[in-house]
């Protein structure tokens, strides 16, 4: 029996913890915005590993960076720094508001660092009573116990014992409730400029400005979780640049490494000084391999032709989805920014987002869901028009199948 026949979906149930329920197909190879499974069948990738594969699969710049660095230096302890980490940090500082960078391995880790830093700043600048963290219902910030508690979906944090305290969840885009919740006790607000897992819901300009103003008034730190919206996903390197509202701390992961695990917390020198030597750390954070790959990703994203093209590709998706909807009447709206789009299901198809995802895979397109009522699209930022069109043609067949029952 060949290895391929034994390394199948059934084996997952025998050897893996059952916290996931993966599809039956097992992808084995990718190139650009196409993926092939064990049988050689191809799929158009509109999922991008959940907004991670921002340059698609096996992009030559990334392969080259990984290969070259892999022959030099893989890992050091944080007793040392290294050239790829220094170069990547400099690039992030050059292209953002930030003056200081902390590297980690995942969005949850970057958010954990941001929250710990915010609490530390409040304690050292004020006192232990300044501890309130404001977050938002349906928000998502990771799966560590601190970040999952700050996240606004109790189902993810219930059932694990006592939760971290002094965390309040407010309705998203509701200025009145925001003003009511703020006080001198508030130490930080953590917010996604556009809620991802919560249904692809952009913050309004008015709401984000109110958050910024209230943070200023009450000496609270504004943390932007840009794990999903960052690395060019919205057509700007980071979404805060689209809004013109600057946070105090920003977290980045997912697309930053284009598929290689890396995350970063960005902040100012004045705030960063509160994470003194020994107060926080990460064994793998800032390792040379990850930083070299992330550098290659940023080098491509920040070339003059990539980000400006994101909006045109976004419009091509919107036009294609509108044409499908004109025939089949399944979506109430398509929302989002750039290439982070959500097709919200109308009243007739509530709770059936996964049906569309499964049917899409059957017809050779990979997509995602964002809750039970939104089909999510997060393709490569450099996906070709031809791949968009072909993927949408396959997706239309999936929609037809779901509608036909």
Automatic annotation (TrEMBL):
<dbReference type="GO" id="GO:0030170">
    <property type="term" value="F:pyridoxal phosphate binding"/>
</dbReference>
<dbReference type="GO" id="GO:0003992">
    <property type="term" value="F:N2-acetyl-L-ornithine:2-oxoglutarate 5-aminotransferase activity"/>
</dbReference>
<feature type="binding site">
    <location>
        <position position="282"/>
    </location>
    <ligand>
        <name>N(2)-acetyl-L-ornithine</name>
    </ligand>
</feature>
<dbReference type="InterPro" id="IPR015421">
    <property type="entry name" value="PyrdxlP-dep_Trfase_major"/>
</dbReference>
<feature type="binding site">
    <location>
        <position position="140"/>
    </location>
    <ligand>
        <name>pyridoxal 5'-phosphate</name>
    </ligand>
</feature>
<comment type="subunit">
    <text>Homodimer.</text>
</comment>
<dbReference type="Pfam" id="PF00202">
    <property type="entry name" value="Aminotran_3"/>
</dbReference>
<dbReference type="InterPro" id="IPR050103">
    <property type="entry name" value="Class-III_PLP-dep_AT"/>
</dbReference>
<keyword id="KW-0032">Aminotransferase</keyword>
<feature type="binding site">
    <location>
        <position position="283"/>
    </location>
    <ligand>
        <name>pyridoxal 5'-phosphate</name>
    </ligand>
</feature>
<dbReference type="InterPro" id="IPR015422">
    <property type="entry name" value="PyrdxlP-dep_Trfase_small"/>
</dbReference>
<dbReference type="InterPro" id="IPR017652">
    <property type="entry name" value="Ac/SucOrn_transaminase_bac"/>
</dbReference>
<keyword id="KW-0663">Pyridoxal phosphate</keyword>
<keyword id="KW-0963">Cytoplasm</keyword>
<keyword id="KW-0055">Arginine biosynthesis</keyword>
<dbReference type="GO" id="GO:0006526">
    <property type="term" value="P:L-arginine biosynthetic process"/>
</dbReference>
<comment type="pathway">
    <text>Amino-acid biosynthesis; L-arginine biosynthesis; N(2)-acetyl-L-ornithine from L-glutamate: step 4/4.</text>
</comment>
<feature type="binding site">
    <location>
        <begin position="107"/>
        <end position="108"/>
    </location>
    <ligand>
        <name>pyridoxal 5'-phosphate</name>
    </ligand>
</feature>
<comment type="similarity">
    <text>Belongs to the class-III pyridoxal-phosphate-dependent aminotransferase family. ArgD subfamily.</text>
</comment>
<dbReference type="InterPro" id="IPR015424">
    <property type="entry name" value="PyrdxlP-dep_Trfase"/>
</dbReference>
<feature type="modified residue" description="N6-(pyridoxal phosphate)lysine">
    <location>
        <position position="254"/>
    </location>
</feature>
<keyword id="KW-0028">Amino-acid biosynthesis</keyword>
<feature type="binding site">
    <location>
        <position position="143"/>
    </location>
    <ligand>
        <name>N(2)-acetyl-L-ornithine</name>
    </ligand>
</feature>
<dbReference type="GO" id="GO:0005737">
    <property type="term" value="C:cytoplasm"/>
</dbReference>
<dbReference type="GO" id="GO:0042802">
    <property type="term" value="F:identical protein binding"/>
</dbReference>
<dbReference type="InterPro" id="IPR004636">
    <property type="entry name" value="AcOrn/SuccOrn_fam"/>
</dbReference>
<dbReference type="InterPro" id="IPR049704">
    <property type="entry name" value="Aminotrans_3_PPA_site"/>
</dbReference>
<protein>
    <recommendedName>
        <fullName>Acetylornithine aminotransferase</fullName>
        <ecNumber>2.6.1.11</ecNumber>
    </recommendedName>
</protein>
<feature type="binding site">
    <location>
        <begin position="225"/>
        <end position="228"/>
    </location>
    <ligand>
        <name>pyridoxal 5'-phosphate</name>
    </ligand>
</feature>
<dbReference type="InterPro" id="IPR005814">
    <property type="entry name" value="Aminotrans_3"/>
</dbReference>
<keyword id="KW-0808">Transferase</keyword>
